[in-house]
Amino acid sequence: MNSKQRVLTALKRIGVPDRVPLQFDLHRGLLDQFGAKLGIPADYSPSYYEDVTYRISANALRTAMGSDCVVVGGGLPAGYSHPKTDDGRGAHDCIVNEFGMTMRQGLLYMDVVGCPLANVTSADEIERFPFPDPYAPGRMDYAKRDIERFGADYFLIGDMELTMFEMAWHMVGLEKFMVDLVSQEPYVAALLDKCKEFSIGIGKQLVALGVDAIWAGDDFGAQNGMMISPRLWRSVFKPRFREVFAEMKAVNPDVIIAYHCDGAIAPILDDLIEIGLEVFNPVQPNVPGHEAEVLKNKYGDRLSFWGAIDQQQLLPFGSPDEIEAEVKAKVEALGRGGGYLCSPAHIVQSDTSVTNMEVFIAAVKKHGVMRKT
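The structure corresponding to this sequence follows.
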């Protein structure tokens, strides 16, 4: 099997692949270290939301390291550059992105330090706000390049994360948005719909370009439970994600629907399956309801899994033996009969060593060969 066949076999659950497939995202520090080691400089693809850059960059490097997947996404319009500004407190190294967020480089990611809708009160303000055009010329240039280069041999994932909830609260500010969401302020629905329509535009283009899977995503979970109640999620977000998934399938009925949601979100997995979810990512470990055996036994005939390897403690601080043992356990639990794409549960940060990352990759290749059942 080549990489594309391996992932398709696993995620579509149409048999047992020759081994459990592999995918990973790396922060800039690790990408640059591996690029220097392998002589393949990391090629950074800009994203319309800056931190998604680490999802969609360095595909030549990551495939050389062993990834079976290539991730592509929407970039910036042709000729566009971010205006520079300060944060009002003397820092002059900030940018203003297309959504009007003032952002400054933090220790790991770009931090939002100014929200364009921090004082929003009405739906009319949302209607007047100048949202970016998902179809702007040039936005898909990097995606087209990598799809053409890798599409025959590797599984193509189209990234449209920050689909609506996260994009909305980044524009308003988390505390205000959460209070207004519960209070049913009229602007909330209007803003979510604007964000949703932008993401649909990005996603439809990626599907039309030929990605094998579309990757939506909003983080509704925390370490111990959901950030909002399942009831609120069902009333506000479930119908909107149903529409997003349906729009992708309308372009290509065979595209696989994947969904990223950090934290403990077991209470809404049945709902997500009902509206069309096919692959659950990142299966964050060490949170309630995400025990690998429990998930596989309950959902393995309806859902495939992508992720499940702890990048909070295991990869940065675990020994090689501990990393190998955990990979072996997750492969045996989630890869049984197919249905598993092995990956860290998030972008691997710079606190993880090159050595530990190599141990992880080698462990997947060693223990990923499964007996057919």
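The longest strand covers residues 155-161.
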